[in-house]
Amino acid sequence: MRRKILVNVIGVLLAFLLGALVMLFQGYNPLETYFRLFQYSLSPGKITYTLSNSVPLVLTGLSASVAFASGAINLGQPGQLLIGALFATVGGLYLNLPQVLMIPTLLILAMVGGALWSGIAAVLKYWFNMSEFITTLMLNMIADYFTYWAITYPFFEKNANHPQTPLINQSGWIPEWGNFNTNILVMILAFVVIWFIVNRATAGYEWRISGQNSLFSRLGGVNISKNYLAVMLLTGALAGLAGGMVVMAGPHRFIKDIGANYAWDGVMIAMVANTDIVLTLVYGIFFGILQTGAVGMELITAVPKELIQVLQAVIVLIVVSGRVYFESLFASFEARRRMRERVA
Amino acid sequence: MDDIIEMNRIVKIFPPALIALDDVSVTFRRGEIHAIVGENGAGKSTLMKILYGMHPADSGEIIHNGKKVKFLDPGESILAGIGMVHQEILLVSQYTVWENVILGIEPVKFFDRLDEKKARRQVKAKIDEFNFNLDPDARVEDISIAARQKVEILKLLFRNVSILIMDEPTSVLTPQEIPELFDELKRLRDNGDTILFISHHLEEVLELSDRITVLRKGKKVGTIEAGEANKTMLAQMMVGREVIFESIRKFQPAGDVVFEINGVNYTDPDKKQRLTDINLQVRAGEIVGIAGVEGNGQLELVQVIMGLVEPTSGSVRALGEDITRAPILEKRKKIAFVSQDRANMGACIPARITENVIMTHHRLNKRFTKWGGRVLDSRQAGLFTNEVRDKFDVQMSSGEAVFKSLSGGNQQKVILGRELLLEAPFILLDQPTRGLDVGSIEYVHQQIMDMRTQQRGMLLISADLEELFRLCDRLVVMHRGKIVAELITEQTNVTEVGYLMLEGAAYEA
């Protein structure tokens, strides 16, 4: 456990060091840049905003982590997020319930949308044995253009000068308590539920073991296809939830490119967290801090915010490759210690 | 006879803390067959791999022909005349014998073109020199495993190797093929070559070798002249205590039929008929053995019984109920299964020990779950892991450790514990002692006999005749997907069964 933390911390620090070298090379002051970055995202007035920004990252990260850990290569988070966002938007446009009913209804609609989209991939696998690796990627494209069409024609806001829907009914807006956007609470709830399912529930146990050795689980009496379907639906629902939250907590409408890069960042987060649920939350928030801070960094120091994307990618590369390298390094330290003990 | 290799005070530690060799010194003489014996994990292969340059030693020295040497990779050791034949055979199966032999040191003519005639002639000359019964133009994929092994040896001889390391060469051979290999090895020895022979089959070692070095848990127990050794003494040196070899069966009347296979045929997706009209019955308190050379339908039979594939026709019944197409979980209520393939079928290697122990139990026994089966009871899982540890004598630090961290023998004990505690009336044992050392084999056999006393019915698939004769009440022989003989153990012998395994028909003297 301590070793796991150490490997991650070393990886992140090394990535920052590399980022600093790049900045030095370009003639910026790395220390000031990093200071501004964290000052912007972690100052008391900003921290809840930063947390709120990391919600879609954490949710899509959880989606990818659960899928990868269970051996389902769901790479369809971008599409599932968009469809979830569209479902929540359409619900928000045509339904008008009291807030206590409206918000859960829209969240459920978003999850249904995401699950529907991943469910298509699951069904294609079940019937035609098509790999979800391919179908989820293809469905991303379809979702991209389908939602673009939906906001350009049937749900287009009249008089708008670029594709977007009208605002959803106000009862469907995620409430803000002063600075505190309550989408953070939804994220925490989702995290707790997912952690419990993966680490404590019978289903999560079967998913994890099947992800590591599906033949063994099958021989042990595990129903592989039922579990696969459950994992695909759940991870699709998580990505859909992320989409719903982006609409309901943000612009309150579906605007073109609303999905941004959240879902791909989520896949990256799952990889860097090695599908560990707690680490997914930590890295999701950490990436949120970097992305939010990037704006402030650019404002004050003129370092372009794209640098942060480079930094994220470097973190992923170093932590993922370092995991294996540091493990064997620690092991050889241990061996050398034993050797000395033996001689002594 | 003079010493050709001296290995002095070799220490090897595999990170983080596995001491594979602990101060081992051994000397090999020119022109001897020297066996290295020991249980699994005793360090036999490691010692030989250090000599061959595959692993560096952490301390100690190697003296070759009076000179201190250090081989950094197998290429260097081959140049020095030391070669190794591995357990798994590494040849290009589409190439002919001579093409495989010259691969890497091809004779060439102008413009670096392969001089095929010369190459073939050279290989043929080597084959004749050593009197190997091999056709240089045969494709490797068309020749038997034994012949492929010969090609491996020939490859080394072609590179002028005079010290030949053989890693368990007999493990891939049928009983009938072994004498030929031994004749060849003896011929090489009489030629002045040195053979280092890794094995844990004691009869073979006694028959073939001149001297024997015994390793136990990374330490050298001793080197003795084969003429002065016997099986009991070697086993005692290997295990560190006395081992019994006789049959351990006591007479016990068999009960009702608990498991039967009726007229099962199976054709695989490539349209190859793998099983033909298999009929079998297993009674309570009875062990039925399936003898056969690997690849004669045993794997397919296991797959049919466990429900991994559906038979083309026929049925599988347990306690009278047709379970041919039942979901695997249903089958598991009646069938416990110990696989030969621990890494893929028997366990989830990267998962924790506890997670491996509760598999199947978590679905069949309410004790392991709460909230109507939805949530695992981790306390019960921990208790059960300790129960398996105590009942099956597993050496482990904690149930939270990963399964991978256990030694092979302990892994098998955990699997055995999980399956035997399922309390199923029928147990399918697919080579349950494969790759285990003598001590663990004895332990597994004892557990199997206990199950027999408890009136469980068992089907034991094994390639090891000694094991089959030791445990089984009845034997059936499989050959090319058919049952070619059904025998009562007391009324047959190893020669007859061995012949049936190879030829598929009764021995006619």
Gist of the model:
The complex is a heterodimer of chains A (344) and B (509). Helices cover 77% and strands 1% of the residues of chain A.
Layout: helices, strands, pairs:
The complex is a heterodimer of chains A (344) and B (509).
Chain A: H1 2-26, H2 30-42, H3 47-69, H4 77-94, H5 99-128, H6 132-152, E1 176-177, E2 180-181, H7 183-200, H8 202-212, H9 214-219, H10 224-249, H11 262-272, H12 277-301, H13 306-343
Antiparallel strand pairs in A: 1-2
Chain B: E1 3-14, E2 18-29, E3 33-37, H1 44-52, E4 59-64, E5 67-69, H2 74-79, E6 82-85, H3 97-102, E7 108-109, E8 113-114, H4 116-129, H5 145-158, E9 163-167, H6 178-190, E10 194-199, H7 202-208, E11 211-216, E12 219-225, H8 231-239, E13 257-267, E14 273-283, E15 287-291, H9 298-306, E16 313-318, E17 321-322, H10 328-332, E18 335-338, H11 342-346, H12 353-357, H13 361-364, E19 369-370, E20 375-376, H14 378-391, H15 408-420, E21 426-430, H16 438-453, E22 457-462, H17 465-471, E23 474-479, E24 482-488, H18 494-503
Parallel strand pairs in B: 3-10, 3-11, 6-9, 9-10, 15-22, 15-23, 18-21, 21-22
Antiparallel strand pairs in B: 1-2, 1-4, 4-5, 7-8, 11-12, 13-14, 13-16, 16-17, 19-20, 23-24
